[in-house]
Amino acid sequence: MNQSAGDWPVIESQSNLLTVLPVALEESRRRMVMIATIFTFLALCTLALGIALPKRYSATTSILVEQSNIIGPLMEGRAVPTGVVNRASIARQVAFSRKVMNEILEAGGWLADNPSALEIEKQIERITDRTDISNPRPNLIQISYTDPDPKRAFTVTEKFAELMISESLATKERESRDAYEFIDSQVRQYHAKLTEAEANLEAYRRKNPDARPGIDADVNARIGELRRQIESSRMELADLQSQDASLRSQLSGESEISMVHTRAGQFRARLAELQSERDSLLLAYTDQHPDVVRTQHQIADLQEELRREEARAETRLSDAPTVLDGSASYNPLYGELKSKLADIGSRSAAAMSRIATGEKMLAQEIERSGRIAASESSLAELTRDYEVNRDLYQDLLKRRENARVSMNLDAERRGLSFRIQEPATVPLRPSGLRLLHVASAGLVFAVAAPLALLLGLIKLDPRVRSSLRIEREAGLPVLGTIPSYRTREQRTRSTRRFAVAALLVASVPLAYFLVFALKLTHTL
């Protein structure tokens, strides 16, 4: 049971095939002229379509954009070469510009008949549609142009490459020159601004001598120094006043005149000193030492002078007993104290003068500091304007020199350069669909179309054409079938239809052979 159920679809498909094949053969015999006519018509129509199909010849050229050369490393940081970013879109804009298209029209011969402006615009649109500019690699530009005339396709493609290179280089040179001129104009403007800022700053400094950078720090340092000097002078004055008071107290206890002893007293005092000196010498030397001997002689002389003075004193006392024999002199300590007191007085006066002068100068510096603080904002604004203009001016000077080098590089075509990598050639074979492609597809379509129509006719025909269909649909066994019998006249008509169909079918390879023979001889 499972075996029969599993084989049922295979048996049914086989029965369908066995049912359709005989019917298809019978219908093809009956309608062979119509099938041959359809086949021949479709094959010859596609052949004619292939012959009439316009030929399209494509010419291609490649332009290499050279970025790196020996100039690049040498001029790095000094020149700014034009980059190749999105170079294909830039090339498309250059190639389809009005100036380039006018030269393309002249090179392609489209202006020979003096077309109108509208015709020129339409022709430019057709050229644009048939031109393809791509960027296979970042530094490679590919130009392709398609035209029915192979020579004109080559001429137009070659002209496109030539004009695009010349226009791109001219555009680069113009961009560099415009950049230099713009930066140069900015340099002149900022030079005028810098000169004006310098004049304003100089005029303000002439009007305000204290308006200089860093003057406030100098004034603050000067104020601090004056304050330290005043404090130091005040401390010195206080010290001098204390010394003055001490000296005055000492001076009050001293007399200006002091009495000196008599001459005999002086001799005795000197004698005592010499004796003390002799005793000291004898501790180290003998009596025969020269110093000891000299001291002995001085002692003897003083003793002699002392005796004579005492004798004179006795004589004076006996003659005038009321007179005191002595001499008066100024007190040296008193004189020294008076001298020190006078010095302290002068120093105190100098200290007071320094304090007064310092306070006056301090008041002047404080007033000066106030003026500087009042003018600081204006000076800062003028200085800021000057520094900003100076920095921008210096930066623009460097940029102008870099732009000058870039302009010279582009003028001499030593920076970014274009080179024909693959020149355009005259196309020998058309591109796109050709006669061979259309004819081959036409043959396949001419064979498939009648078969599809025949199978559709069999499927849509409601008549019973097979005993298997009766058994399958009615469920009744068929005992036998009676084949149709064709008469002699029917066989003659069938032979005649076969001959006509064969003639129609044979005309197709004959026509294809003739066409391809003409193609090989370049007649067609």
Describe the structure.
The protein starts with a helix and ends with a helix. It folds into 3 domains: 11-52 and 437-520, no CATH class; 57-190 and 406-422, Bacterial polysaccharide co-polymerase-like; 216-389. α2 packs parallel to α14. It has 14 helices and 6 strands. The strands form 2 sheets. Strands 2-3-1-6 form a 4-stranded antiparallel β-sheet. It has a two-stranded antiparallel sheet with strand order 4-5. It has 524 residues and is α+β, with helices and mostly antiparallel strands. β2 (131-137) and β3 (140-147) form a beta hairpin.
Task: Give the SSE layout.
Layout: H1 2-30, H2 32-52, E1 57-66, H3 71-74, H4 87-95, H5 98-108, H6 117-130, E2 131-137, E3 140-147, H7 150-207, H8 215-251, E4 257-260, H9 263-282, H10 290-319, E5 327-330, H11 332-411, E6 417-422, H12 435-460, H13 467-474, H14 488-520
Antiparallel strand pairs: 1-3, 1-6, 2-3, 4-5
Helix pairs in contact: 2-12, 2-14, 5-7, 7-11, 8-11, 9-10
Name the descriptors.
single chain, 4-stranded antiparallel sheet, 6 strands, two-stranded antiparallel ribbon, 524 residues, 3 domains, 14 helices, alpha+beta, Bacterial polysaccharide co-polymerase-like, disordered N terminus
Q: How many DSSP-defined strands?
A: 6
Number of helices: 14
Helix amount, in percent? over 70%
Largest sheet strand order? 2-3-1-6
Overall mean confidence score, pLDDT: 76
Shape, per Cα inertia axes: rod-shaped
Share of residues in strands? 5-15%
What structural class should be given to the helix and strand makeup? alpha+beta
Structurally, how many domains make up the residues? 3
